[in-house]
Specification:
Structural class: mainly alpha
Largest sheet: none
CATH superfamily: Glycerol uptake facilitator protein
Distance between the termini: 30 Å
Number of domains: 1
Length: 279
């Protein structure tokens, strides 16, 4: 009777083959699927904000947000989409010499851009839908607070948190490759993602939504006012929440941290352990 899961060494081989397929995918298809991944992760981010926006205890808020957020990655893996953080694992195929490093880099850039467009699309729909008016505008104020905190991180904080995040995200993807049925894939994705959200680490694609939604909410004087009055978001935080700062103070360092955490500490590490050492 065959196992319904892959062993760690078999996961390395499977990830290598998957990396080759992803890198060889036509650019248009990659963009379309990257857009969907941005949509899926953004929807999970929306749910996480809603479930935690009126909970004062930060531990309980993150605990509950972590229960809903894994839906995003489950959709990516099971329904099929291209996610920047998960595609960091193409590093295994590059290390094996089956994907050129330039092609690997191109894939990550295309997927990152597609994820960004999908995230902004959902943020704009949420803004238009009036959902940010929940709890007398508290959700809109909370959305501003979340975004302003993210643009207030130092480069080192954002980069380090990005590494920690993608250690767990890529482990979730890694274990999903091991599972051979949907139930197994969903289960092994759930717990690492719950842990990353509960721990408060920085995920570049989730932040594409949080920052976009925060920027849109901050353009509404009612939400901006309530963020200051109720949640203590100061003038400096409001002023720091700009499109440029969203990229330079968060998305750039977090994306680099995600790359190091996923490509190096998961992908390359397992490849060295199971392939390089044995050779």
């Amino acid at each position: 009777m065959s196992n319904n899961f892959l062993t760690p060494s078999e996961i390395v081989d499977f990830t290598e083959e998957t990396g080759v397929k992803k890198a060889d995918m036509p650019v248009v298809r990659t963009l379309l699927l990257a857009f969907l991944a941005g949509v899926f992760i953004a929807l999970a981010s929306v749910g996480s904000n809603i479930i935690s926006h009126n909970i004062e205890d930060i531990g309980v808020a993150k605990y509950l947000a972590g229960l809903i957020f894994p839906t995003g990655l489950i959709l990516v893996v099971v329904a099929g989409a291209e996610l920047f953080t998960g595609n960091n694992l193409i590093s295994i195929a590059a290390l094996a010499g089956r994907v050129k490093w330039s092609k690997y880099a191109l894939n990550l850039i295309v997927v990152w851009l597609g994820n960004l467009v999908g995230s902004i699309f959902i943020a704009y729909l949420i803004f238009l839908s009036g959902q940010l008016n929940y709890s007398d505008g508290l959700l809109g104020a909370y959305t501003i607070k979340v975004a302003s905190i993210k643009t207030s991180l130092t480069f080192t904080e954002a980069f380090s948190s990005g590494i920690l995040c993608n250690l767990l995200v890529c482990l979730a993807v890694w274990m999903s490759y091991a599972a051979k049925d949907i139930a197994g894939k969903s289960l092994v994705i759930f717990f690492p993602i719950w842990l990353f959200i509960a721990s408060g680490y920085e995920h570049s694609v989730a932040n594409m939504y949080y920052l976009s939604a925060g920027l849109l909410a901050n353009s509404d004087p009612v939400f901006a006012s309530r963020a200051g009055e109720i949640l203590g978001v100061g003038a400096d935080n409001h002023n720091n929440l700009t499109i440029i700062n969203a990229f330079t103070d968060n998305l750039l360092p977090v994306s680099l941290g995600n790359l190091v955490g996923g490509a190096l500490f998961i992908g390359a590490w397992y490849w060295w352990a199971y392939k390089k050492v044995s050779r």
